[in-house]
Amino acid sequence: MALFRIECGKIAEIWSVADDLGRLQRLGVITPEELQSAGPAATPAP
User: Which of 16, 20, 22, 39 has the smallest number of Cβ neighbours within 10 A?
Assistant: First the structure.
Protein backbone atom coordinates (compact mmCIF):
# COMPACT_ATOMS: atom_id res chain seq x y z
CA MET A 1 0.00 0.00 0.00
CA ALA A 2 1.26 3.46 -0.74
CA LEU A 3 -0.09 6.74 0.59
CA PHE A 4 0.73 10.00 -1.11
CA ARG A 5 0.39 13.48 0.37
CA ILE A 6 -0.15 16.01 -2.36
CA GLU A 7 0.65 19.67 -1.85
CA CYS A 8 0.12 22.32 -4.53
CA GLY A 9 -0.59 19.62 -7.11
CA LYS A 10 2.70 17.77 -6.48
CA ILE A 11 3.61 14.74 -4.39
CA ALA A 12 5.09 16.07 -1.14
CA GLU A 13 5.46 12.80 0.80
CA ILE A 14 5.09 9.06 0.24
CA TRP A 15 4.47 6.40 2.88
CA SER A 16 4.53 2.75 1.86
CA VAL A 17 3.79 -0.48 3.70
CA ALA A 18 4.36 -4.03 2.48
CA ASP A 19 2.58 -7.17 3.69
CA ASP A 20 5.67 -9.36 3.88
CA LEU A 21 4.04 -12.00 6.09
CA GLY A 22 1.12 -12.36 3.68
CA ARG A 23 3.51 -12.66 0.75
CA LEU A 24 5.50 -15.41 2.49
CA GLN A 25 2.27 -17.26 3.27
CA ARG A 26 1.09 -17.08 -0.35
CA LEU A 27 4.47 -18.38 -1.53
CA GLY A 28 4.25 -21.29 0.91
CA VAL A 29 7.38 -20.27 2.82
CA ILE A 30 5.37 -19.97 6.05
CA THR A 31 2.58 -22.47 6.76
CA PRO A 32 -0.47 -21.91 8.96
CA GLU A 33 0.93 -24.51 11.39
CA GLU A 34 4.14 -22.48 11.77
CA LEU A 35 2.12 -19.36 12.54
CA GLN A 36 0.11 -21.19 15.21
CA SER A 37 3.23 -22.52 16.93
CA ALA A 38 5.13 -19.21 16.84
CA GLY A 39 5.28 -17.24 20.08
CA PRO A 40 5.02 -13.47 20.35
CA ALA A 41 7.90 -11.51 18.86
CA ALA A 42 7.84 -8.95 21.67
CA THR A 43 6.27 -8.64 25.08
CA PRO A 44 4.58 -5.46 26.26
CA ALA A 45 6.24 -3.43 28.98
CA PRO A 46 4.60 -3.71 32.43
Answer: 39
Q: What residue numbers bound the domain in which 13 lies?
A: 2-36
The strand pairing partners of 2, in sequence order, are: 16
Residue 24 lies in a domain: yes
Residue 41 lies in a domain: no
The Cα–Cα gap between 46 and 42 comes to 12
Distance, CA of 26 to CA of 7 (rounded, Å): 37
Indicate whether this model's pTM tops 0.85: no
Residues in the chain: 46
Tell me, what's the pLDDT at 32?
Answer: 84
The total of structural domains in the chain comes to 1
